Amino acid sequence: MELETDVVSHASGSARLRLANTDILVGVKTEIDVPKPENPAQGKIEFFVDCSANATPEFEGRGGEQLANSISNLMQRAYYSSQAFNLKQLCILEGKQCWKLYVDILILESGGNLCDAVSVAVKAALFNTRIPFVKVALMDGGNIDLQLSDDPYDCKLLDIGSAPLLVTLCKIGDKCVVDPTAEEESCSIVSLIVGITDNPKFYQTEKENEQSFDGSAKCSTIDINGPGSVHPKTLNNAINQGMEAAKALDEALGRTLLRERKENQGFKKQSYGFLK
Amino acid sequence: MPLDYKRFNPPEDCVSYKRFTKDSLKSPEQLENEILIKEELRKDGRALSETRPIFVSTEAVSQAKGSAYVELGSTKVICSVYDPREIPHQNEFSQLGHLFCEVKFAPFSCPRQRRSHAPDAEERTLSAALKQALEPVVCRNMFPNYQVDIFVYIIENNGSCFAAAINAAGLALVDAAVPMYDIVTASSMAVVGDNYFLDPTEEEEFVALNNTGDINHGVITMATMDVLQQITNFTQIGSMDVTSVNLAMVKLEQECANLVPVIQQCIVKKTVEGLKIKKKLEDAAKEREKTLDDKIDIWKKKLQAG
């Protein structure tokens, strides 16, 4: 798996992931918006998936629309819980202003296991997202006047330690396969998708770790995909299997992202090029 | 948001007056305390693992091939299934038949907002999930290159509307005499901490979904085929650990099994009635034939008599 963050200069945060033949590019754009009246203290996050026809000819025209919809729905659901992603950190002024994150997911090449790859790339892009600090907020009657910091380095980072990772388990025969290739996917009649939020510790340096508590792994979304059905026992086993896989993946991702951030801070990062 | 231009729309920044009523100004924590009157007893007087009374009937829509109407407490769902027709806009031959599912909320169905006429994200998700729940149940090899249309209309949503939709769609498919492997039933559950609300109301679902604390919370909907012991759809949203997912699953499985006799009874009633009608029609046809035969005999005799 190849992962590179901060690849698009016009986005607040971005990441590119290559998992075997699957290629995903994620860009995060930020905008100021008015919070929903029901949740005045929360920001917003929205996912858009674009299956470009470059990936496979099947996506041409409206072909990829259904797949794109299902992936963005799945992501939206996985990020729904406040334990998965706390929208309160996107609040600027309660009831008046908040940040809205647009997560745009571009599928450049499709070679199986799209959901997992998308979730990893999104998490990396959010980890990389910088939100400028608000310097001054003036209340003038009912209107609010915000002044944002001009300095690109004067920004805050998001707390995404518990953001969920999706794990697809393809049922082939009696067993469930993690990280299926396109061939394996076409062999299986039903697949399970489990969204797991794991220990936020993986994404913090040791110093921060001392203050935060240990989180345990929780499911944030479960879904069955494909025209088949499963036995309850299989589902049970698959959830457990997905959990283990997610844990290993989350730990590795956290380590990599922290290392990259460190390299970035020391200006030591070597750019490996965008599309090699 | 796309606007409905057929009606006069309020200014864009309008909010429903309901948000300023006493009930909706309550914080999630307050609501959480309120949904349980005392331990193990809910607001509407049910125990935690007690479902609302269910009502099912067939033949709700006379124009459709098959239809069903399901009530779960005050949740009301109507479903109609139409005859197979050739799959539109498709060039390739498909070995398996298609199911086209559409879930629609009535504009006045939800207590918190007015639903727009254009299909929104939730409706699209539910449509896809309904298709997932029904596909394994239908013998799709019996009608290759054809599609069956299934339309679900949610008239009133007071929680568990998706479970009601699956139950209605399953029954409507039976009513339409679409070949199926088993009866499909569904049930849902809201989890707040250690409390498992079976067949939740809208308020309980709302509390379970919008919990901001550090406890297990979420809503699970599961559809099963009871005889074949298969789960056809499992949708979870929220955040909960594996043990509570498993616990909820066991309870839901039990509840789905409990629903099967209700559906069966409805089908048997419908079939018996159908047989009765068939017999009546046959009798009437025989009688008609007999009178005709008699008349012919009379004419023949008259002719022979010259």
Automatic annotation (TrEMBL), chain A:
Localization, UniProt: Cytoplasm; Nucleus, Nucleolus
Pfam hit, one: RNase_PH
Gene3D superfamilies attached to this UniProt entry: GHMP Kinase, N-terminal domain
InterPro entries linked: ExoRNase_PH_dom1 (IPR001247), ExoRNase_PH_dom2 (IPR015847), ExoRNase_PH_dom2_sf (IPR036345), Exosome_comp_Rrp42_subfam (IPR050590), PNPase/RNase_PH_dom_sf (IPR027408), Ribosomal_Su5_D2-typ_SF (IPR020568)
SUPFAM superfamilies given in the database record: Ribonuclease PH domain 2-like (SSF55666), Ribosomal protein S5 domain 2-like (SSF54211)
GO MF annotation: an example: mRNA 3'-UTR AU-rich region binding
GO-annotated biological processes: exonucleolytic trimming to generate mature 3'-end of 5.8S rRNA from tricistronic rRNA transcript (SSU-rRNA, 5.8S rRNA, LSU-rRNA); nuclear mRNA surveillance; nuclear polyadenylation-dependent rRNA catabolic process; rRNA catabolic process; TRAMP-dependent tRNA surveillance pathway; U1 snRNA 3'-end processing; U4 snRNA 3'-end processing; U5 snRNA 3'-end processing
Superkingdom of the organism of origin: Eukaryota
A GO CC term assigned to this protein in UniProt: nucleolus
Record family assignment: Belongs to the RNase PH family.
Name of the protein in its database record: Ribosomal RNA-processing protein 42
Source organism (scientific name): Eumeta variegata (Bagworm moth)
From TrEMBL, chain B:
Domain of life: Eukaryota
GO cellular component, one term: nucleolus
Subcellular location: Cytoplasm; Nucleus
Keywords: Cytoplasm, Exosome, Nucleus, RNA-binding, rRNA processing
Listed Gene3D superfamilies: GHMP Kinase, N-terminal domain
CDD domains associated with the record: RNase_PH_MTR3
InterPro entries in alphabetical order: ExoRNase_PH_dom1 (IPR001247), ExoRNase_PH_dom2_sf (IPR036345), PNPase/RNase_PH_dom_sf (IPR027408), Ribosomal_Su5_D2-typ_SF (IPR020568), RNase_PH (IPR050080)
Ubl conjugation keyword on record: no
Pfam families linked to this entry: RNase_PH
Record-level Gene Ontology MF annotations: RNA binding
Single biological process term from Gene Ontology: poly(A)-dependent snoRNA 3'-end processing
Domain Exoribonuclease phosphorolytic span(s) in chain numbering: 50-179
Family: Belongs to the RNase PH family.
Name used for this protein in its record: Exosome complex component MTR3
